[in-house]
TrEMBL record:
Compartmental location: Membrane
Residues of the O-antigen ligase-related domain: 202-375
Main location: membrane
Protein name (record): Polymerase
InterPro entries for the chain: O-antigen_ligase-rel_domated, WaaL-like
A Pfam cross-reference name: Wzy_C
GO cellular component, one term: membrane
Topology in membrane: Multi-pass membrane protein
Keywords: Membrane, Transmembrane, Transmembrane helix
TM region positions: 7-27, 33-51, 63-88, 94-112, 119-141, 169-187, 194-211, 217-233, 240-260, 366-384, 396-415, 421-442
Species this chain originates from: Pontibacillus marinus BH030004 = DSM 16465
Length: 449
């Protein structure tokens, strides 16, 4: 049996199991070593060897434009190094970027059997279920929780990051996969037991999202769930309005409503939204005044908003002063102290800090040319996704996968406005791994397979 499967297949299975579960990173001298640092080169070598020995073959899915755009942005990164004050961070950034490109090419182009695709899917669901259960367990028993931002919480005693190193990263991953989990739970499965099992996994991830206490992620999750249902309304609501799923939905709603600090953090999220609206569109209680607790909540929220917008301003200033080639790939952190010293109003108490916006980071480091070529990758990603949807929309499984990927990748793009998720290796590997495997499955297997 084992001889029927390629080494490439087993290495991709290892990616599906290990990458979501193992965030650990150690340094061998200046070189960071993590699961993806080991697995992606092994996978690349295995594919090259097995392709030459004709143990694997490529499908006919055309991804030349993807590779062209990846190559263009890589060329811009090389050129931007001419502006860098430190070459090593730039080279590390470029090597990581290339690893994503190789991974995406492999998982998108290598052909697998129907059975192998199914094993990938079942393994992924089992793996993320384990990660989600660990997230809830870590909160219940206060195991390795992130304490940053706890000052603004009344009841919660920490923020869950589960198998990732930061609650914001975990929140990004949760929102990326929630649309697919919801669609399969409600629409794909016909048997009640499988619907409830998948809905339980969906519920686990909703609860994990609450336990991250990441306000922007809460809002994006709510919007993602609504959009997911509206993109396939007839089938979705017909299946949802059954006794067992209505009961499961009500149970999940009651649980979420009664979780620690849900109501306070939700109000805080609303304050964040209001802070970006014109003053004449904002209002408080009917009498125009806030209660003492609401005033305290709003005060904490305003401080967080000011801090985040100051970080964005820093990235914007770097971009404005280096609009063509940027200040060099990987060099945002290297130049941060220089800029907050030069502009004291940008200082937020740290000598080195993330810009908390992937697009500003790209613009600051590679200039307008880099930002345009970078965004072109994601614009084409959605064009490609839409094309696959048009071609395969009559197959229910493929339709659900592509709708889920569309909404999930949209949440990923949105959360990169407030975080640097694209530059988090564990998370970005999962983004391209899942995207590539879905594109591969949708193209390779015949409809209704």
């Amino acid at each position: 049996m084992a001889g029927k499967h390629s080494l490439t297949y087993y290495l991709i299975l290892l990616h599906i199991i290990i990458i979501p579960l193992v965030p650990a990173k150690v340094y061998v001298g200046p070189i960071p070593v993590s699961a993806q640092v080991v697995l992606i080169p092994l996978l690349t070598l295995a594919v090259a060897y097995e392709y030459m020995r004709k143990r694997v073959e490529f499908n006919t899915l055309p991804i030349k434009m993807f590779m062209t755009l990846f190559g263009l942005f890589f060329l811009v990164q090389i050129i931007s190094l001419s502006q860098a004050v430190s070459i090593i961070p730039g080279i590390k950034e470029m090597v990581r970027y290339l690893s994503y490109v190789f991974l995406f090419f492999i998982v998108t182009k290598v052909k697998f059997s129907k059975q192998e695709y199914h094993v990938f899917a079942f393994t992924f669901v089992a793996t993320i279920a384990a990660a989600g259960l660990w997230g809830i367990t870590s909160y219940v028993f206060d195991l390795n929780l992130n304490k940053a931002g706890v000052y603004a919480l009344e009841e919660a005693y920490g923020r869950v990051h589960a198998t990732m190193t930061n609650p914001n990263y975990w929140a990004g991953f949760v929102n990326f996969i929630i649309p697919m989990l919801l669609l399969f739970a409600v629409v794909r499965f016909k048997e009640r037991k499988w619907q409830l099992l998948m809905f339980a996994v969906f519920g686990i991830y909703v609860i994990n999202q609450i336990f991250t206490y990441t306000r922007s992620a809460w809002l994006i999750m709510a919007l993602a769930i609504i959009l997911t249902s509206l993109l396939i309304p007839k089938q979705f609501y017909k299946k949802l309005f059954t006794i067992h799923l209505i009961g499961a939905t009500l149970l999940l709603g009651i649980i979420v409503y009664n979780l620690p600090d849900v109501q306070e953090r939700t109000r805080s999220a609303m304050f964040v939204v209001q802070s970006f609206l014109p003053e004449d569109t904002q209002n408080a209680n009917g009498d125009g005044e806030l209660s003492e607790d609401e005033e305290k909540n709003k005060s904490f929220t305003n401080k967080a908003v000011v801090s985040r917008t100051t970080l964005w301003k820093t990235g914007w200033v770097m971009y404005k002063e280096n609009p063509v080639l940027g200040l060099g790939i990987g060099n945002y952190g290297e130049r941060y102290k220089e800029y907050v010293t030069k502009y004291p109003e940008l200082y937020v108490g740290h000598d080195e800090y993330s810009v908390h916006n992937s697009y500003l980071k790209v613009g600051a480091e590679t200039g307008t040319i880099g930002l345009v070529s970078f965004l072109a990758i994601y614009v084409y990603y959605y064009f490609f996704l839409g094309k696959q949807f048009i071609l395969h929309r009559r197959d229910l499984t493929k339709k659900l996968l592509l709708i889920g990927l569309f909404v999930g990748s949209g949440t990923y793009a949105g959360q990169n406005l407030a975080n640097n998720l694209i530059f988090i290796p564990q998370l970005n590997v999962l983004f391209w791994l899942i995207s590539g495997l879905i594109f591969n499955y949708v193209h390779t297997l015949s409809d209704d397979a």
